[in-house]
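2024-03-11 09:14:02 DEBUG pipeline.ingest accepted 1 chain
2024-03-11 09:14:02 DEBUG pipeline.ingest length=677
2024-03-11 09:14:03 DEBUG pipeline.predict start
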Amino acid sequence: MAERNTDELHEIQLQGASNASGVGGYLLHRAKPHLPPWLGMAGTGLAGVLGHWRWAESAAAGVGLTLGSVALTGATWLMGKSTSHQRRLHSAITVAAGSAWLTAACLAGPTAGPLDDLYLMGGPAMALSWNVRMLMRRNPEGAAGESGDKGLLAKVGLARAQIGAAKVEPNRVTAPIALEPGEQTNEDVTKILPRIASVLDLPKSAVRYTPDAGSERRGELVIVPEDMLSEVVEWEGPSNLGGSIADPLDLGRYDDGAPLVIWLPGDPDAGRNSTHLLIAGGTGSGKGDTALNLLTEILSRRDVIVMFSDPKAFQDFAPLRPGLDWGVEGGTDTEVMVEAVSAAIPARTRWLGAHSYRQWTPSAAQQQTDPEHTCRSDGRACGCEGMPFMVAWFEEAANTLRALGDDAFTGIAQEARSAGISLIVSLQRPSYDQMSTSTRASLPSVIALGCDARDEGFSLPDEVLAAGAHPGAWGNRRPGYCYAVSPGIPEDRYPSPARTRRFTQRAVKVMEALAAWALRNGAHADPVTAGAVSSVAGRAYTGRTGASDTDAPQLTLVNGEDDMDGGPLADPEDAYIDPEAELPEPEDGDDVPLFGQESGHKPSPEEARQLFARALEEFEHDGQMIVGPKDFTDWCDRHHLSRSWVSLRLKDAALEGRLEATNTTGRWRIVPALAAA
């Protein structure tokens, strides 16, 4: 405020009249602030003349003047403790020089020896030094507010640091800092961020520091004075319906109002790599709404398919299920999905390589009419069907990791990016006792929501935490608050809090409409991907058909008519029974009791092998493509066979190529009959 008043006064002075009186008034106004040092010099000379006239022959006066000079100099040094070091030193030197000359002039006379020359040369020099200091105090080009900034740094222990011109944006201030060489490092700044927040009376999440990658003593201090995330924003629909999955996915906004966006595919022109994503947050942190924000954005794009596993039976995602290419509810079905995605990786990579794609781009999803992307040896356009981007999403992944082992996703995470596949893993606590270190290291992107303070290190990189990110400060008290770390996001945004949009009951109808749009207009799996997935999943994989097509019982009309809304309903297998036909005649054995009799004979080894083969066919027909000894419990009881015999037959079937081992001990993947043959 004082600096602004000085500037206003300066402007008023410049706007004065241009006549002689105006110029004189301006010069007088400009001269007045600089007169005190000269008046002090003149007063010192006059005091020397009067003092010599009074105390020229007094020894006691000499002692008193000397003691007074020392005392005044010491008092000046002590009183300058609260000012800057330069001002304190300047004041002490001025008082010491002036009081020493006055003492000598009073005792010996102002013209004795060199005293008069010292006065005529040293006095003006000292007065001019104060005039120069006063002129330098006003610096409209960059020093405005410097004293306040330096005062802030002094309060937190960085008094010798230099702060540059701040960049002021709406609700965001960014100031470059240069620390004292050899005495301070960027780590010193990260340690005192809570103290800076305390001085500014802000939450510690509002203050962060981004070190300069090329220097250990330079960086940028970012201050966001107002939390713009306190207002809840409801989801109203996707941001880019019909766009490409390569376009940014809008999930919410940062605390300064900027949009929170991420990318999944890479962009060779922008130098951005494809990425996998971890969504982590404790109970009540808003992880479900964050996942819905992301999934609705993905399903609204024209060139992507989604394979989705949710052990919670799609409690949050049911309205979107018809838009998924494949959705399963955990357990054995998720085992199959993991194996199917793993099988799709080499098939998709081979196709992309054959068509000269180093990574997936939107043109790969179109029919291949460009000779630069042909699989033909003669260089002509091949016309192959395009390959859409693929998202493999494992919701509540802790359940899957417990069942399949902590490295269930390791192979996918390490290899899928080059195949145009993005792996999304969502769980509450991504600790290393749940997820292997190899898998966690292969998930470069993360959306970290509120968590226990002790779990912060599992969600975010150490350098982001050091820069001021603290998801543990939220816990479950601020649903939707998060930090996002992902390729394409500027690194100075990593420690910036953001908030995703909230989904309410009003969003259900919009989500259902979005799923219907995706079913009609979204991409379908290309032949290469569908073939690879089907080779593992068999009938369990159907592609985008809608939940109602696969889950509801299929009923048909008999004879096309009935006496009740169109005719009686019957199961398909009973559709060809003639209700008017006579019942067959009784046959021998029809009256044998069903219960209380001896069970049939134990099958021979060859019969048992045939029964086992038929059992595998039944599992395959039902879509259960991952089996183990526990799945044959009822079958063993019916045929009087032990589980140990089944285990041996499973190994034999693996040698014959009918089964393949999975990542889980004791679990086998059924190779579809045609593929095995």
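2024-03-11 09:14:41 DEBUG pipeline.report Residues 85-108 form the longest helix (24 residues).
2024-03-11 09:14:41 DEBUG pipeline.predict end
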